[in-house]
Amino acid sequence: MTDAAEYDVVVVGAGPVGENVADRTRAAGLDTAVVEDELIGGDCSYWACVPSKALLRPAIARADARRVPGLAASVQGPLDAAAVLARRDEKVGDWKDDGQAAWLDSIGARLYRGRGRLHGPRSVSVDGPEGEHHLLTARHAVVIATGSRAVLPDLPGLTGAGAWTSREATSAQQVPERLAVVGGGVVGVEMATAWQALGSRVTLLVRGEGVLPRMEPFVGEHVVDSLKEAGADVRLGVSVAAVDRPGGHTGPVSVVLDDGAVVRADEVLFATGRAPRTDGIGLGSVGLTDGAWLDVDDTCLVRGTDWLYAVGDVNRRALLTHQGKYQARIAGAAITARAGGVPLLETDRWGAHSATADHAAVPQVVFTDPEAAAVGLSLAEAERAGHRVRAVDHDLGSVSGAGLYADGYRGRARMVVDLDREVLLGAAFVGPGVGELLHSATVAVAGEVPVERLWHAVPAFPTISEVWLRLLEAYRG
């Protein structure tokens, strides 16, 4: 038996992005339903942002403390791995979503637990966990916010070998004695940092010649140097050819490289790519390709439709929770405006209904030791885009605030200046604590603040933020 119900908006996916859409549409008075087949709160809350940072925070705090005389001698021992894992479990609510479900109820959104699938235009069918069936119709919009999933490469021996993806890496209950990490992106370097600090002997295997390839090259160089100093075995320019685990999901695993070398480990993490969670959600019923990334305009409306929106990872604009939540705010405003009959949306550059920052000012922090942070375009990206640019660099270790933050502080900062308009196109930082520098850079890039005006934004003494003054002085010459 199928229960039928009608809503103004139906959101498929209740991670942070879907939750934010529901929050915006409910605040505007639109009747909203939310569909989720896993935990309310999504990957970010249970298998990504929250647990990974809970694992990394003790490692970073200890590293910072070891750089401060008078404190360093007190933190020379190993981390209490059991306590770190217990705190991680607490931060993810022991993988229970009662609180998140209660929040959805508090804003007046109706929650349907089960697998949601498009069932033709403006229609979503839901198969519940107890065999119940619902058919939901949306008067104004259906929003796809189902996120992405880790992809394992097609390698001999990998199927059935019990390899970790990001989910297992952030939820493991035991510290493996030896961990092989394949991939030099954010997940790879963050998990290498965390598990090395927790006591694993980590081998990081990277196909390219550096890590964090979307950031400035010097950022990855600092991160690699630090991982090596911490005891990790970092191998660049290598590829995995096969995996051999005779015991199936348990026991030692051998990672065979393309040059014949073998890395032996107790667990292997593959952090080698993501795919959209759009397979099996009925895209074919509305003329779209099952399992595909969804192409959207700047209001997050799926091109070729006037009712289907895609926010977060599924549209591939920026696979970051904070950008997905930003898109959710934009989409929520656009849905509300269109439902209210607004004839002309603010879709001009930086308009209220335009996710312009996805193109120009995407910020990201990587919580390694040292931290890495960047916003906007790198120097290489700016040059490829045809801008006439100048990169201005400064040694963060020479900034007085950095010297007080930690003895022997090592880091670097760069701003990329558009010489024709004299505004920042991008900025990048690497060093302890630099994540807190990023929002000022994001404001400068998103706001297109002229360099001559940035000169009057005075950084407080003695903080690491003084690097802004040094960068501007170097630019002025």
From TrEMBL:
It comes from the Bacteria. Residues 362-468 form the Pyridine nucleotide-disulphide oxidoreductase dimerisation domain. Residues 7-323 form the FAD/NAD(P)-binding domain. The keyword Cell inner membrane does not apply. Its cofactor is FAD. It holds the Pfam family Pyr_redox_dim. Signal peptide: none annotated. Keywords: FAD, Flavoprotein, NAD. Gene3D superfamilies: 3.30.390.30, FAD/NAD(P)-binding domain. Belongs to the class-I pyridine nucleotide-disulfide oxidoreductase family. This is NAD(P)/FAD-dependent oxidoreductase. It comes from Streptomyces sanyensis.
